[in-house]
Design brief:
Two copies of one chain form a homodimer. Chain A folds into two domains: 104 residues, 60s Ribosomal Protein L30, Chain: A, CATH 3.30.1330; 170 residues, Phosphoribosyl-aminoimidazole Synthetase, Chain A, domain 2 (Alpha-Beta Complex). Helices cover 31% and strands 27% of the residues of chain A. Chain A has 341 residues and is an alpha+beta fold. In chain A, 53% of the residues are buried. Strand 2 of chain A pairs antiparallel with strand 1 of chain B.
């Protein structure tokens, strides 16, 4: 028996003892707060926090391992948007105990797996019980190495090109598929997707892709890093609430407007076909669906863009417009609002 | 009109715009993550996270300003226990919108007031809506100035004196008073306490004191700072879950036992009288009531103790016992368990 094993049946202590053993030598847990290793001279620390509420940001039935991975991913995306390197995480996990109990060990296993893949150390946590809802909040601390300037939302100037990484709308299509009964579960140690009844075979591949894009977003850390070193970058941010909400934020921060060319939005062909079956307009999902976790950024004209990015418009002096069929219309404002009743 | 004012009625953006204006020039908000100012050479960062759930950790009716102050206080107590100086806070606030809506501005006002009093800068946040419950999670980052060693839970050795700051049990008595109908509200800009019906006049003062001790704990930052500079300090931690839960944690971390003298526990005389009316055993509240936010620490024999602290026993080789009427009994293990169903 080690001294670290709690007596008297305190469940919190039993879980934290397991966690410390799981983390092994040199872990940062065990005191009232964690003393973080010193950063190299000239490095700056970057901090962000994001919550995931079961039933709001993710399906209530999502496996704890996947829920935990997703929580880290959305936080990593914020660091990607700053061009920072992820270092330490602190998790506050408030969840049911007893009936409807969350498998907290599975949650931590998922988080620690994903942390290990991203060079992140768990540096603290808080455990609490709720009646029904699982709310997990992750604080992620990153590092801007000496000499690296952060990407910011300000810095866009009229004349800059407006760029986005990857494709848009697929995550929202994934959410719609889940609403129509698609499920993800684990069988024999592998994750498997069950697709909604009636989905034609030709949509199997894009449907799976959309579901994974939604449940397991891949933060653009490499792109963020590349952008910090690229002369000619203006502003940058990640697309978490949808272009319709996030582009106006970038424009407000920079004091500029923008013109987006609807035909230039990067929509995968298979995604557009899938939208037909979903009875959803691809443009709506791309603009207002949210949770793309792509990077949105501006480049001075003539700047060679990074691979895999699309120019979707340009920065203007004022007003944000959407160019559809050659006609500029007011930009939609129907992206995700975290406080909308 | 400033460019920072959102159009389109996004409530999250309206709140964050208000917040940035409230914080003024040089605020750290507005990007996907905050770039923190560099620490002086040799300083180390210390990180902790704590949640407060309305109806679990605090009364559901508690005014948002007080709830926010309490959230900061419990986090400050963790930094006090490390001997660190508070620097930056990140708040994740998940609360109802629409019916039963939380007054988020009042919450932020309370937080920012308390942050200002403690030299803390708000460095980030996350806003989400829940159906009913308000869950607030604060991450607090502190600084261990160059040359200052953190207080730790390990470091207690057999023969050390066991010490505690302030008095114990009053916070728990305050919680019992609230359960019996005591309320705290604001009238004409001042906070007022309404005491439970039938409370005799002579208990008015200790009752108010207990209620405030529960709702507005005062973290022991000065004591933590003093202890870091005191040769002869062994282990230290804050008492958040009650001596019955927290002392075993300190002992496990240090690999030691302890003997606590029940007659030496610092119980205010007025608190003991109040317990008679509450029909509660003072010793039970002092051991298992929780939320004292005193510091528990060990000192090498002969070390002059800081002011306002009491020696409640000693560190032993093994086993934790409670000395009652000269007889050692097994130490109770009925403190607060955050995961008990």
């Amino acid at each position: 028996m080690t001294h670290d094993e709690p007596k008297g049946g305190n469940r919190e202590d039993a879980l934290t003892a397991w966690l410390r053993q799981r983390l092994g030598e040199g872990h940062l847990l065990g005191d009232d707060a964690a003393v973080l290793p010193e950063l190299p001279a000239g490095s700056r620390m970057v901090a962000t926090v994001d919550s995931q509420i079961a039933g709001v940001h993710q399906p209530a039935w999502l496996a704890p391992r996947l829920a935990a991975r997703r929580l880290l991913a959305v936080n990593l995306s914020d660091l990607a948007a700053m061009g920072a390197e992820p270092r330490h995480a602190l998790l506050a996990l408030s969840a049911p105990t007893g009936e409807g109990e969350l498998d907290r060990k599975a949650y931590f296993e998922g988080l620690l797996e994903a942390c290990a893949e991203n060079g992140v150390t768990l540096a603290g946590g808080d455990l609490a019980r709720t009646a029904e809802t699982t709310i997990a909040t992750l604080t992620l601390l990153g590092e801007l190495p000496a000499g690296r300037e952060p990407l910011r939302r300000l810095g866009a100037e009229a004349g800059h090109g407006l760029w986005v990484s990857g494709t848009l709308g697929e995550s929202a299509a994934g959410r719609l598929l889940l609403a129509r009964g698609a499920r993800v579960g684990s069988e024999g140690g592998r994750w498997g997707v069950t697709l909604p009844d009636g989905l034609p075979d030709e949509f199997t591949f894009p449907a799976r892709q959309a579901i994974w894009r939604h449940l397991a977003p891949e933060p653009e850390l490499a792109l963020g890093r590349a952008l910090t070193g690229l002369p000619g970058v203006g502003a940058a941010m990640d697309l978490s609430d949808g272009l319709a909400t996030d582009l106006p934020r970038l424009c407000r921060a920079s004091g500029v407007g923008a013109e987006v060319d609807a035909t230039a939005l990067p929509l995968a062909a298979a995604f557009q076909d899938l939208c037909t079956w979903l009875d959803a307009a691809p443009l709506d999902l791309a603009l207002a669906g949210g949770e793309d976790y792509s990077l949105l950024f501006t480049l001075r004209p003539g700047t060679p863009p990074p691979m895999g990015c699309s120019r979707i418009g340009r920065i203007t002096e004022d007003d944000i417009t959407l160019l559809e069929d050659g006609t500029p219309r007011p930009f939609p404002t129907n992206g995700w609002d975290h406080l909308s009743p």
